[in-house]
Amino acid sequence: MPRTRRDRLLGAFEGLETFGVSVLLLGLPWSEAMKSLGLAIAAVGLLANLAVGGRMALAPKWTHLCLGLYFCAAGLSLALAPDHLSGPRELLTVGMTIAAFPLVADVCGRRPSRRVLLAFVIMAGASIGAVLGYFEHMAGSYHRLVLPSIENAIPAGEYLGATMAFAMGVLFAEASAMVAGPLLGFCAGACALALLMTKSRGPFLGAAAGALLIGAVSLRRRWIVLAASLALVAGATLFWTINPGSRIVKEGVVHSRSAVNRIRTWEISIDRFAERPIVGHGVGSFALLGIHIVDEIGVEWEQNAHNVIVHSLVETGLTGTGALVCFLILGLRDVVRALRRTGWRHHRAITAGSLAGVAVLLVSGVFSVSIDAEPGILLFALLALGASVDAQSASPAKVNDD
């Protein structure tokens, strides 16, 4: 049946949206320009598609509804915030961060084969970012590695840890491939090496959780996961013994200055939440609340609450945090359901890797705000990527025997 002009336009605009999402995910860890350009191209492609009568693929709808409610709650928090704490730019930042979820869901919902494309784009971008970050670190005077577009070591570590876990998931399915296997191994190894050089404890813990999760999901021989867990504990203990002055284990971690200050920050943040429990002080307002910690070294002004939930409670109150938590629960449910019904090993590997990457970011979110900026965009992208499985893949899953 010949294609009409409208069908050709829809195909062109869908391709433009896919190209934009690919540019966004490729440049996320190493190019601010590519991130902005990719998001703009994807938005143009989507809006043009809708303008000529196309429809978005937004299943499952309840998950998207909760995300929409979170965005509305963020807008409400700004509308009701004091004048010196409010600003439309913050709402735009939230929109740009969460946009990855509906965009990736739409692209993969139209053509599930694009999951493979986006998966390799994410890993290619992380590999480039890790290599560029390594060379900048070795040529500069920084004590902790950062990425070209992620200039803080903690979110850089979160991004690297999540991508490492994601690459490991795909590697289990492609380890024997002549070309893809070594490339995936390089990606996972480069991200792991760069992650270690960030010296960020929260992302370390998240990466360990993600790696163990991907092993439990992808391997039948569960004793390998147990052995890996014991090896991690033994390795950490040995490192602690040999390097007691290292930043990673200094002062027993829980007694370190950063850990003590985090606990104090949580306590003060809860007090700020109690002042405006329903709608919060306004999204993006935390850094303007004047929360600071004074100790024997000096004054430390806190830019965030060092915890996803506490930070959200302060800025968006119970309305925004409730919507965010519901979205995360439903998003994880969607990924787990997709994992159970996925038959083709490539699709299963992508879904398992997405679940592991999300786990890395959520575990890291106990100690930092991992749903913001580049790690946040990756989180929303992985949730959509992991859940987008077509009906043709809904045969009983075949687990890799490696």
Helix and strand arrangement:
Blueprint: H1 5-27, H2 32-51, H3 61-79, H4 88-98, H5 100-110, H6 114-139, H7 153-174, H8 180-198, H9 201-218, H10 222-242, H11 257-275, E1 292-294, E2 299-301, H12 308-341, H13 345-364, H14 373-387
Antiparallel strand pairs: 1-2
Helix pairs in contact: 1-2, 1-5, 1-6, 3-4, 3-12, 4-14, 5-14, 6-7, 6-8, 7-8, 7-9, 7-13, 7-14, 9-10, 9-13, 11-12, 12-13, 12-14, 13-14
How would you describe the overall organization of this protein?
- The protein has 402 residues and is mainly α.
- Helices cover 69% and strands 1% of the residues.
- The chain has 14 helices and 2 strands, in the order αααααααααααββααα.
- The radius of gyration is 21 Å and the shape is globular.
- Residues 391-402 have low confidence and may be disordered.
Care to give the gist of this entry?
The chain is mainly α and 402 residues long. The protein is 69% helix and 1% strand.
Overall number of strands:
2
Average pLDDT for all residues: 86
**What is the chain-wise order of helices and strands?**
HHHHHHHHHHHEEHHH
Cα separation of the termini: 45 Å
Sketch the major β-sheet. Answer: 2 strands, antiparallel
Measured as a percent range, the helix fraction is 55-70%
CA-based gyration radius: 21 Å
Shape: globular
Residue fraction in strands: under 5%
Output the number of helix runs: 14
Considering the chains and any ligands shown, give keywords for the structure:
402 residues, 14 helices, two-stranded antiparallel sheet, disordered C terminus, globular, mainly alpha
